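does this look right to u?? glycyl-adenosine-5'-phosphate version
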Amino acid sequence: MPGKVDMDKIVSLCKRRGLIFPSSEIYGGLASCWDYGPMGVELKRNVRDAWWKSIVHERDDVVGLDTSIMMHPGVWAASGHIDSFTDPLVECKSCHLRWRADAIEGKGCPKCGGELTEPRMFNLMFKTSMGPVEEEASTIYLRPETAQGIFVNFDNVITTSRKKLPLGIAQIGKSFRNEITTGNFIFRTREFEHMELEYFVKPGTDEEWLNYWVKERFDWYVKLGVRKENLRLRQHGKDELAHYARDCYDIDYLFPMGWSELEGIANRGDFDLIQHAKCSGRELGYYDAEAGEKYVPYVIEPSAGVDRSVLAFLIDAYDEEEVEGEKRTVLHLHPSLAPIKIAVLPLSRNEKLTPLAKEVFNKLCPNFVTDYDDSQSIGRRYRRQDEIGTPFCVTVDFESLEDKQVTIRERDSLAQIRVPIEGLEKVVEAKLKGESFNASPLWATRQK
Ligand code: GAP
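got this back:
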């Protein structure tokens, strides 16, 4: 079942409004690579920050980490990625296009119908070499997940953080996968950003913690405005579990191409710590002082993609409405995700209005990401802000010069209120936090 929003409309809005551009566009682009523009970089940063806040800052049982992308090759042998991080690849004997065997329907090439080769297992890790000599011994890999940087630092964190189990270690960073088939805009790319939590628990409590994290993560999307009916939970069948997983749930989102994975929450058991202890020769256990016993913790892993979350938030926020006979495109983004929180729009570029409008901008920008725009008609400027999801616009008009008040317009209801410039920051702060917007009917009709 496809979602209601057309992906082409999202791609076009992202290009038009400076959210996301094709990478290396002036050279014809590079397949599956995308660049975040001035608005996109703010949105992406807000998604990361919202995750970090809820996973690290608002809890006392999780700490953060930032590990290197290139790691000792032994890490990937131990983790099973060298042997098992593979997809079955087939190639068309006529047009030579390559496909993931488990992602195509029918027996022939999806492009030309040609005969396909027998599947062979293709490793998804990008290889490169470290140092000036390119030889077998210098081969290293770009990490395909941030998780392993956490496992190999487990002992460092335990011995330096003075924390007890259950303890989570969180990391956000780039991962790389040489995916056979990419596509659907930023849904599946070869370079992407992971937000991963490895939550270490006492064996026997793992099922309980898995259920806890599935609920926490589902609720995170809902709190940030994603409609519940566009989310669903799906437990993996035994035959689809990753080589390290004992159990796993996907949070699926109804993307334009249908229900697809947004985030996975896996019970990795003690697989990784046992493997790294065996291969590195370092003991990786935990002494539980309260229980007076030593054990290898189990790990619950909520693993999400920043880019895929950005896409889901954009799709869910996207709307086309009719306002007074005119079509408006709007992103109903949660205020904490919106790239710009408030825009200052003088009614026109007029030498009398500009100084006061600049004064209002200078008052707001130390506190909120604020835009200043005085070119083109006020209607066009409102439309631009609606399309990038700016929750509030402040208009400075000729009456403002007399009464030292401005009009705030709310993106979703289009309601307007008139407030004094003095103390404007406090009003904006309260409105961004969700305080009700009691619009005066007078101003709602005056400032169309
Ligand atoms: N450490 C576990 C792990 O990496 P995964 O299910 O392979 O699990 C977790 O990935 C999440 O990372 C996915 O749910 C998705 O949001 C994101 N992700 C994975 N591969 C991706 C790709 N090629 N492009 C964009 N996002 C991707």
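Residues 145, 147, 177, 179, 188-189, 192, 194, 196, 261-264, 301, 303-305, 307-308 surround glycyl-adenosine-5'-phosphate (CB under 6 Å). idk if thats expected tbh
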